[in-house]
Amino acid sequence: xxxxxxxxxxxxxxxxxxxxxxxxxxxxxxxxxxxxxxxxxxxxxxxxxxxxxxxxxxxxxxxxxxxx
Length: 68
Hints:
Blueprint: E1 3-7, H1 10-17, H2 23-30, E2 37-41, H3 49-62
Parallel strand pairs: 1-2
């Protein structure tokens, strides 16, 4: 199973609010092998967490990559 294990950063959240890619989405989109699962750690951004995961799932689904 190809898994991306990463940390949610401020730039990821800020760019998501502008519908732009940052580190997590760029890696997930550009990696030559699609990730079967993306695990994101965060200790802040509670108010944006659900919105970010929905946004990332839409981005992955739009390009035909796994979105869970």
